[in-house]
Amino acid sequence: MKWVTRERPKIDRIACPWLIRRFIDPEAEFVFVPAGELIAEAKRAGATSFDAPGADYTHDGNLCTFEVLVREHGLAEKDSALAQLARIVHAADIAGEEGTHPFGPTVSAIGTAGLDVESDDLRLLERGLFVYDALYAWCRANPGR
Fold it and tell me: Between helices 80-93 and 121-141, what is the axis angle to 10°?
């Protein structure tokens, strides 16, 4: 399945593809497009859109797109480490919520600085997936922290 989101991914737009590939659609293909073209490109390609106004999956109230995907697919009930990772992504992605998890500011810094390190969005995604693999491993090894 093809998934479309805005170009220059950071935080939520790296975390969501990680979640999609690991738990929802292992064969997912990701396309990054300018924000103004996202909905039209998703319709043209028959793709699922995410993390943009009007997208199939996006922020809902105070929830980031990662949390929405976890909720919509019933993943937190099956995996407490994933629920903890959702709290980390929330803290990193939602303005004013940085203090809700101690990893929030660091994950935010890594996500934002990644844009300065890698100019190719697909390469940035591939490099960023390791960060979420590592965070998920930490959450599994440290339940409830």
Answer: 130
What are the residue boundaries of the structural domains of the chain, listed by start?
Answer: 2-141
Q: For residues 32 and 8, what is the distance between their CA atoms, to the nearest angstrom?
A: 7
Cα separation values, 128 from 21, 42, 60, 123, Å: 13, 23, 24, 8
Output the pTM of the full model: 0.95
- For residue 86, the surrounding DSSP H or E stretch is helix 80-93
CA-nearest of 66, 61, 76, 49 to 12 is 66
Residue at 26: amino acid letter: P
* Largest pairwise CA distance in the chain: 43
Tens-digit pLDDT profile for residues 20-56 = 999 999 999 999 999 999 999 999 999 999 999 999 9
